[in-house]
Amino acid sequence: MIFATFATSLATLTSYLQTYCNPHPNLTVSSSPLSGVGLFTTSDIPEDSVLLQIPLSSCTSASDVKASLPPILKDAPETLALAAYLYQNYVPSQNPYLDLCFESVSDHPLVTLRDDVLQNCDDPEIIREVNEIRAEADEAFKILSPHLTTTKIDPTRFKKSLAIILSRAFAHDDTERLVPGLDFLNHHHLPNINHSIYNDSIIVKASTHLPPTTELLNQYHQPSAPSYVYYSRYGFIPQN
Hints:
The protein is about 35% helix and about 20% strand. It is of the alpha+beta class. It has a single domain, classed as set domain protein methyltransferase, domain 1, CATH 3.90.1410. The strands form 4 sheets. A 3-stranded antiparallel sheet has the order 3-9-8, with no helix packed on it. A 3-stranded antiparallel sheet has the order 4-6-5. Helix 3 crosses helix 7 (about 155-170) and helix 6 packs parallel to helix 8 (about 225-235). It is globular.
């Protein structure tokens, strides 16, 4: 996906990053040759430097939002609870991070009507997995929509909300979270950062020396997962 098609500007995202994610001064948001946006160094950054310090209060976690959801979702899986929360509460143009999230999933297999990959796919597991996850999303929306408070019933908005959680949420301390800033990073089988929770913040550090113009790269959560898992969850098949 080309970032130029996004309505959310780089300057707006940079401002959001500076306000909520305490970035290293030698970082900037820019369009990425890999996909969408990314974080890049503007000057040398030594190994083990703190790149981002993201307060947990800036994140959206399943454990935080469940109390605000209808009773039918109290014991729901965290992915579904977070998706329902986004579906109910997202207001366009009020939060540039969430605007980016919703813009970035237009080509996710849950959302898009374009099936280029499936049409040219010779892997029956990918076709099966995508069809299953679409059917599950349709069934979940059918069950939940009468209980969710929105101005109108919008299955596409629900699918986008679910695609955001599937593709962007992180698991820390046994709960799923949307972590603004950390999920700006593209993934690679050779990451150059690491992240962990420390003192009520998610700390992102450089795993190695980072020269100027280096893109920060996170690791895949399941580096050996089969292609169908990547495509159905993240909307792409990684190239090693």
